[in-house]
Each structure stands twice: as C-alpha cells, then as structure tokens.
Amino acid sequence: MGDTIVAVATAWAPAAIGVVRLSGPEALSILSAFWKGKPLRPRVAQLGEVRDKAGQLLDQVIVTYFPAPHSYTGEDVIEISCHGSPYILRRVVELCIERGARLARPGEFSLRAYLNRKISLDQAEAIADLIQAQSAAAHRLALSQLTGSYYEKVRRFRSQLVELLALLELELDFSEEDVEFASREQLRSLLESLNSEIVRLLSSFKMGQAIRQGIPIAIVGRPNAGKSTLLNALLSEERAIVSDIPGTTRDTVEERLFLGGYDLRLIDTAGLRETPADPIEAEGIRRTREKVKQAFLILYVFDAAHESIDEAQKHAHALLGSDKLPPILWIANKIDLLSEGTRDSSPDVLMISAKNRAGLESLSSAIIEKLNAMGADAETMISHTRHYESFIRAHESVKNALNLLRAGGGTELLAEELRLAQAAIGEITGEITSDEILGHIFSRFCIGK
Ligand SMILES: Nc1nc2c(ncn2[C@@H]2O[C@H](COP(=O)(O)OP(=O)(O)OP(=O)(O)O)[C@@H](O)[C@H]2O)c(=O)[nH]1
Ligand SMILES: [Mg+2]
Description:
The protein is an alpha/beta fold. It has helices at residues 27-32, 86-98, 108-115, 121-132, 136-146, 149-173, 184-203, 205-213, 227-235, 279-294, 309-320, 360-373, 385-406, 411-429, 435-442, and strands at residues 5-8, 15-23, 35-36, 46-51, 57-66, 77-84, 102-103, 215-221, 253-259, 262-268, 297-303, 328-333, 349-351.
C-alpha cells in the first residue's frame, strides 16, 4: 500500500470507451502531468485532453476524480474514460507509469477497498462473482452476497452470537455472585434456531456452487435411444455425432446450455448396455457412470418404439443401480414412430421426438421445475468453499454449545464455544483473516477491479 496503482478497468478490445483507473495518494499529481483541462472538481465528469511528453495529443477524454475516502478503494481515485482503443489505453497506462504509478495486480483495487474497510471480504468475493455471472441465477446469488439476503444472514448470525456471548461474559465477570444473566432456556432456544438455520444453509452449498460453475445434467440411456439427437436438439446445433449404429457416442460430450436463467452443463454420454462391443465402449460406459454420479439431474432417454416405461425403468435401475442416484426425468423418445393409440402416456414420463424437435418445451419446463424443486431458485445459498468451511466450523461449535447446555455445562466452556462460532463467521466477512486467504481471493479478480 501507499503507492499509486493503475490499470485498464474495461476489456482489452476496440470499443466506444475504455477506462483507465488510478488509485493512491499520487493519483492527482500523476494525472496533472499529462492532463490538459480545467482543474478537477470532486465527482464531476470533465472533458479534457491527454497529451504525451512531447505535447502531442493522444486522446480527448473525460476524467472523474473521487477524492479519498469517498471512492471505491477509499483512496484518491481517478477514472479516465478514453476512446476504447487498446493502443490509446496502453499509452495512457504508460504515461501514468512514467509518472510513478505501478501496474495493479489482479483484484488490487478491491483488495484496497477491503483493507480500507469500504467493503467486507464476502462482498469483495461477491463483486468478482457479479462480474463473472453468466446466468440470472448466478447473478442473483452474487447480489444476495453483495447486499442482499445472504449478506444480511451472515451478519445476523454474527450479531446473535455476539449478544449471547456478551451475556455470558457478564455472568463470568460476576461469577463470585453466582448469577445467571442469560436464561438457559432462552439460550437453548436461540442456539437451536441458529443451528437449524445453519444446517439449512449448509445444505444449499452443493447447488450454490453449481449455480456459479454450471449445473451438470447427464443425458443417459441405452445405445440408440436418441441421446445425442436430444443433445443436438436442445442446443439447436449438430454438436454430437448421431447414427443408427448402437454405441456411436464413445466419450462424453459436454456443452453449456442457458435455460430458464440457469447455466447448465449438458452431458451426452455413451449408451449403457450390459455387454459392450469392445474395450473402448466399455471405457465409455465407465465414464457414463462417473458422470451420473456427478450430475444433479439425469435425463433418462428410452426408445418408446421398443420399450415401455416400466421396461425402461427396470433397465435403468439394472444398469445404474438405485443407490444415491440423482433425480431422474424419464423421457420417451421417438414418439413419431408410434401411432396415437399406442402412446403409453403417464404423468411421470415426457413424450418427445428428438428428431422432430417435438415435446422439447415441456422437457425444458420440466428441467427448470425439477431444479427449482431442488432449491436452485433460492436466494440465500452458500456458493463458496471458503464460506462453507467456516460454516462447518461454526456449526460444530454451536452443536457443542447445545450439548453443553443440555448437560448443564459451565458458563466458561459455553462462552468458549460461542467465541469459536463467532470467529468462524468472522472469517467469512473478513474480520479475521490471513494474507494467504487474501492472496487467494483477490487473485480470482480481473486486473483493474
Ligand atoms: N424416428 C426417430 N428417430 C430418432 C429420434 N431420435 C433419434 N433417432 C434416431 O435414432 C438413431 C440413434 O440416435 P442417436 O442420437 O445417435 O442415439 P444415442 O442414444 O446417442 O446412441 P449412442 O450414442 O449409440 O448411445 C439415429 O438414427 C437417430 O436419427 C426420434 O425422435 N425419432
Ligand atoms: Mg450418442
């Protein structure tokens, strides 16, 4: 800290405008060396020129000056909006460096914002998420962590723990007098509700993480059922090879699909059968089983011209087992080959013709409905491993505290557990942290943020 950093804050590609950002005590004096315009007034966009050392005009720019502490980083910040030419942007950055600025590291502006207490650590992570969010769901989670329900929940947990702890500590101060400031009954009920809220939050982690990274959904079924045809139909693109030879798909094929505000990782797999034709197909089937384990949802496709739903389900369970399977959507394909009367319609089965792109809308709605039923539409979710690990520790301590209460344990031990829980949650917001953690978090950022 202490030095002045500079970076291009927008993307490196020709665009209408591009922004160079300076932050630090020398920001104003660095700018004034090449700025030709009226003296800068705080938080006013001002038109002027950038001229190089020889006095040559480089660009007409708009400059905004945010004096400390009312800026993103809490330091003096200057934003120079240039024409978005990568050449101009590079030259402006060079001019700043010639005058003593240093090129910022990834996330360094946000790191300074955190160190100057403009944002908390979980908010800094949320800003990185917001920039990277590609789906409505990921955007919603990032906002929830930035200023919304997740942000508030974490702070409420912490303040509840602080309050309880204060009562217990008061009791310890007066320990000679054998008084109970905190009613044990009240304490227990508060801790129990805290406990169940943490348990609920912990269970959201897998989905929260998948929403940020893409929710894996596997298309599974016997060879020739039409899985690859379905993948192509959903993507509206001839992505996977389709043929009437069973065992066409050897390796898994994965593509992103944005559907209903979710970022999905749609995985086409090798058809499952008991007796693979060769070792390559056997390896393909092994990979299918792997993908099934990782998937959040299975689209099980069967050929309705050859199998009834009952037969298909029996086969599926024989091939996949029924242990710990993700939820399954049953999809009867090739209904174009069936005459009206023979369609075995059941409310649990989606009837489609992948080849004719029939029934895809109902299938898409069913996928979204299933994900929502799994809690994917919740707003308050844990989406970072770092938070998850802290919550696990907070949970351990809350559980220990409850056990102590039930066993009539001493105030001292109880207070210690609450202190640990409070510290674990303090790590999430960044009140307690190490340089190693900071380095890891801010390296995820882009340069200029
Ligand atoms: N009539 C009809 N044929 C279909 C339909 N969907 C797929 N097919 C045909 O079924 C055959 C197999 O399709 P694929 O999509 O390659 O089947 P797959 O399940 O990926 O098969 P593997 O990769 O071998 O496991 C191809 O000849 C497709 O044209 C459909 O809805 N109707
Ligand atoms: Mg295939």
